[in-house]
């Protein structure tokens, strides 16, 4: 049964060097399949507002089964003197699920002044809607008679004599086209655009990274960005998906029906996720991990490129 009141779940943070705390507020702990509810992330702190709080980041899912449909901006609110804290940062997520089951919403991690705060796990129950399968299919509404007004009769008449309207329209179109194109200027043909095969463009970037020993650079974020951009652009050109604009989850989902092997899909998922950790979670991989990712990228492009010998071709967009 759907709760009629807010159920509060407070996660006690690690309080070393600080009196700050986090709280998670789940509006409904039980919903029916497809229904939506809200979850609030709150961070209470006493220090000055200018200090940064590192907020949890999400894609379109909290878990594999719980989907985020909408989210608010992270807002800061000053608290009055009756509170134990001076400031409150909070964000509201609109969530739903289409998997009837008992789900666990994981802990959320907040970082403030080199301290880490974790919320509690939340129980989230999604109930299904029972259907009475003993009853047969029935019409939504009964069959009823309709009037046949004059306007509909005229419309039917037009349908029966459509060819006359078509002949008149064709004559008018021919006259318009003749007048428009009779004295049109001759357009110059644009220079043909050479299309470079996807694997050649990807290998150029990968070879440049290999030549410069880029995996040894201290700037791991820049290295992984260039590496994954080359792989994503290759996927766009090779498999016609908008990989540069999609999350790792969305890319893997769109490649589900391609001829890419399971092992290559697994590598692709791992290298993109590792790059996400480097760019968004401040994860620092080793040089060996960076070199291994580069070598696997070479292997992935080589295995999935078009088998036939592909020569640069002229784009149809630039041929008159």
What does this protein look like?
- It is a single chain.
- With 320 residues, this protein is α+β, with helices and mostly antiparallel strands.
- The protein folds into two domains: 7-127, Immunoglobulin-like, CATH 2.60.40; 194-304.
- The chain has helices at residues 150-160, 162-181, 198-211, 220-239, 248-254, 262-280, 287-304, and strands at residues 7-9, 21-26, 30-32, 36-45, 53-54, 66-71, 75-78, 87-97, 102-105, 109-112, 115-118, 122-127, 194-195, 313-314.
- Strands 1, 2, 4, 6, 7 and 8 form a six-stranded antiparallel β-sheet that branches.
- A hairpin with an 8-residue loop joins strand 7 (75-78) and strand 8 (87-97).
- Helix 3 (198-211) packs antiparallel against helix 7 (287-304), helix 4 (220-239) packs antiparallel against helix 6 (262-280) and helix 6 (262-280) packs across helix 7 (287-304).
- The chain is extended.
- Residues 1-18 have low confidence and may be disordered.
Give a quick precis of the structure.
The chain has 320 residues and is of the alpha+beta class.
User: Would you tell me the structural class of the helices and strands?
Assistant: alpha+beta
Number of helices: 7
Principal-axis shape equals: extended
How many domain regions? 2
Helix % is: 25-40%
The average pLDDT is 80
């Amino acid at each position: 049964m759907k709760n009629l009141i807010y159920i509060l779940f407070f996660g006690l943070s690690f309080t070393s060097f600080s009196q700050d705390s986090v709280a998670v507020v789940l509006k409904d702990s039980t919903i029916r399949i497809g229904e939506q509810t809200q979850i609030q992330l709150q961070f209470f702190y006493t220090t000055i507002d200018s200090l940064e709080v590192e907020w949890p980041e999400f894609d379109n899912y909290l878990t594999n089964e719980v989907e985020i449909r909408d989210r608010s901006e992270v807002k800061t609110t000053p608290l009055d003197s009756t509170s134990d804290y001076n400031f409150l940062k909070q964000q509201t997520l609109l969530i739903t699920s289409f998997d009837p089951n008992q789900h666990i919403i994981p802990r959320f991690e907040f970082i403030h002044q080199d301290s880490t705060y974790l919320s509690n796990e939340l129980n989230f129950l999604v109930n299904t809607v029972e259907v009475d399968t003993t009853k047969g299919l029935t019409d939504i509404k009964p069959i009823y008679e309709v009037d046949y007004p004059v306007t509909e009769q005229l419309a039917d008449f037009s349908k029966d004599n459509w060819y006359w309207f078509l002949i008149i329209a064709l004559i008018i179109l021919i006259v318009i086209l003749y007048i428009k194109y009779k004295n049109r200027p001759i357009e110059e043909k644009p220079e043909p655009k050479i299309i470079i095969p996807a694997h050649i463009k990807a290998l150029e970037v990968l070879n440049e990274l290999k030549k410069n020993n880029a995996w040894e650079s201290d700037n791991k974020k820049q290295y992984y960005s260039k590496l994954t951009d080359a792989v994503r652009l290759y996927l766009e050109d090779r498999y016609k998906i908008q990989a540069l604009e999609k999350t790792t989850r969305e890319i893997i989902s769109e490649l589900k029906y391609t001829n890419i092997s399971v092992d290559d899909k697994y590598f692709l998922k791992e290298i993109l996720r590792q790059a996400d950790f480097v760019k968004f979670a401040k994860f620092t991989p080793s040089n060996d991990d960076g070199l291994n990712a580069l070598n696997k990228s070479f292997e992935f492009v080589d295995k999935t490129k078009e088998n036939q010998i592909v020569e640069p071709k002229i784009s149809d967009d630039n041929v008159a």
